[in-house]
Amino acid sequence: MNKVSRRNLARYAAKRLLGGEPAGEVAKAIAAVLVVDQRQNEVDLLLADINFELESRGHAATTQVTTAHDITDKLRNEISGLVKKATKVDQVILSEQVEKSVIGGVRIETATRVWDKTAVRQLNELKEAF
Amino acid sequence: MLLNNMSLDFAQASGGIGAFNLNLKSFLFQLITFALVLLVLKRWVLPPLMKTMENRRLALEQSLADAKATEEALASAESRAEQIISRARAAADEVLVEARKTAEGIIASAETAASERAALIIKDAEARLDQERQALRTQLRAELAELVALATEKILRKKLDEQADRVLIEQSLKDLA
Hints:
The complex is a heterodimer of chains A (130) and B (177).
Chain A (H helix, E strand, L loop, with lengths): L5 H13 L4 H14 L6 H14 L3 E8 L5 H15 L3 E8 L6 E5 L4 E5 H11 L1
Parallel strand pairs in A: 1-2
Antiparallel strand pairs in A: 1-3, 3-4
Helix pairs in contact in A: 1-2, 1-3
Chain B lengths: L1 H12 L2 H5 L3 H136 L2 H15 L1
């Protein structure tokens, strides 16, 4: 029996989610397919594909925000507004991560876009410019 | 002896011839003997002798002619040998001149080739030096960039507190918008 491709699986999951089905049910179905096909190690990739499908269809954008310090609500709202405008989605889901290695600034990552305005990125660009 | 006596008597008897004291018989006998000897000589001795002498004369003349011819041949051979030697000397001189020219040509072309090769080696060395210089420059630049980035990072970590970071994020979001 041929295995279903990850992309097709993601499309299927997105379709069911956008159809209003509970996320838990969809997750169980997907998990069953992965277990049967012994593809448990593809979970992270599949989730990224599902996020991509949801964002492409304008439903929701799962956004990873990385900063060196905690951000305020004001900044959260601004980031959400920026992502919503850029990806043309109905909903923005923010996931925050504090990482001292970025030194300062912010990195915003969605399934389809990345904005990196961290200090460490600018330092690397400076090194490369030399 | 008897004849002698007879002749003596005859001589004494004759008046005119007897005055010369000649013995006629003896004279006749000697004359006959002389004639005989002459005849014998003429018949048997003289021809071979003359022939022999003639042969010898001819031989001598032939020898002289041969000697002369030999001398002439020798002179001619010497002259030819002299000519051959002259020609050989001239040819040897030409060969020497040619060899000298060829050697000079070879030396000149070897010098040219050597100087061209030296120029190529120098050019190659200069090109390699340039490359190394470029590589060093690039390496130095990279190290300098690394140091600058490191220094900047250290400064930023010290200076960029939470408040400053928020201001930086706001500025970045404004730029993105």
